[in-house]
Amino acid sequence: MPTNMSIDRDSYLSSDSVCGDDAPPPHLVERADDRPTFSGHGLSTQSVHGGEQRQKPEGSITQPIFTTSTYTFESTADLLRFVKGEDIREEYGRYGSPNEKSVEAKLAALENAEDAIVYSSGMAAIVGLFMTKLESGDEIVFFDQCYHRSREFCSKHLARYGVVTHQVPTGDFAAMEAAINDRTKMIVSESPTNPHLTCIDLEKFVAIGKANEVETLIDATLATPYNLRPIDFGVDYVWHSATKYLGGHNDLLAGSIAGRRELLDPVRKLRGVLGSVNSAHNLYLLERGMKTFELRMQRHNENGLRIAEFLEAHPRVERVYYPGLASHPTHAIAAAQMRGFGGLITFTVKGADWEATARVVDAAKIARIAPSLGGVETLIEQPLVMSYYHCTPEERVRFGIDDNMIRLSCGIENTEDLIADLKQALDA
Ligand SMILES: Cc1ncc(COP(=O)(O)O)c(C=O)c1O
């Protein structure tokens, strides 16, 4: 250390040490600067400008892609200002990056949340949250209609660490409350659920959480902040697979958790240890996708509703699951708490076995056969032979997966073209 620097060694290398400290050091939990949230503005204004520095490097209008794993310090004095928390800036890619901060602040603005943390996938986000919040002996209660990997993570993997998961029938609040005990830390649901599109009454869900002093988590991937903002209902954590509508172009994987700052600080700190972060290129794609979020969602909603209505009226269709239809069991809840109903539709083909159902899927000319949802391209799949292929027949019955079920993720193509394509596929 140069002798001309007036540094008191002990005061710099003592209580604020990053290692072994319960309180997260400032650079692991704080944003680099106060970014505009455009609170009170429309969603497109928020998604185009929210969370961005007004003046970017070299006057660039877009967020430059920072392809760096590490960040240099001018001098040791500069470094020491940083480790003392006097200068909030980047240090090392696992703890944050300019591209990440921009996306996180934009996401928080869209969710009306104090903060948001971005992960390398939706699953990485839920693993990060649960690993932070749960320990051996803790319990969580889930509504049972859920993304099958969430269920798998809880029942197979959290169980190995002594965390107990209770699954109760979706929407059965009495069963949920009965499953809560002194060890319960969190109640969890999707809304709408995948693939049955069941919507959860968030006022009741939050009331149960508050009455029992347990935290609440909603996977709002299918809803998106365009259609539903769970934070406004008092939900503690909002989880997204940003791979879906937020990215919107079927070209990236990402996930996020949004909520109050004090709850998320330790989650962010653990992400810095787990390392489930995105590359700058990925974050740039996510940010670029988010700029057109509202426009895309308007078309997804329009396509979803009109195609659901078309399917419901088609003689070869037995049942349509879409929360925008009056026939959906949770339509009233959806209509009361959502702005639109999204682009995902599940339907069954009348009198069809699995092969006749597969022929409908194969006959589609615009919709492409693939897992995932929420992108600009329309995707079609038969859950039996896609996500649920490896389940036993008993499990498929339990999860409500029928042989003649088709899941359609409406993209943003023209509505008439998609309807004509489905018509010829059903009529074939
Ligand atoms: C509702 C829902 N939540 C979470 C996930 C997991 O997200 P990811 O695939 O980005 O890990 C998915 C993935 O399909 C999903 O559909």
Automatic annotation (TrEMBL):
Root EC class: lyase
Biased segments, Polar residues type: 1-17
Cofactor(s), by name: pyridoxal 5'-phosphate
SUPFAM superfamilies: PLP-dependent transferases
N6-(pyridoxal phosphate)lysine PTM sites in chain numbering: K244
Pfam families from the UniProt entry: Cys_Met_Meta_PP
Cited Gene3D superfamilies: Aspartate Aminotransferase, domain 1 (3.90.1150.10), Type I PLP-dependent aspartate aminotransferase-like (Major domain) (3.40.640.10)
One GO term of the biological process aspect: methionine biosynthetic process
Region (Disordered): 1-65
Alphabetical UniProt keywords: Lyase, Pyridoxal phosphate
GO MF annotations in UniProt: cystathionine gamma-synthase activity; lyase activity; pyridoxal phosphate binding
PANTHER family: CYSTATHIONINE GAMMA-SYNTHASE, CYSTATHIONINE GAMMA-SYNTHASE 1, CHLOROPLASTIC-RELATED
Similarity remark: Belongs to the trans-sulfuration enzymes family.
UniProt-recorded name of the protein: Cystathionine beta-lyase
Organism of provenance: Rubripirellula tenax
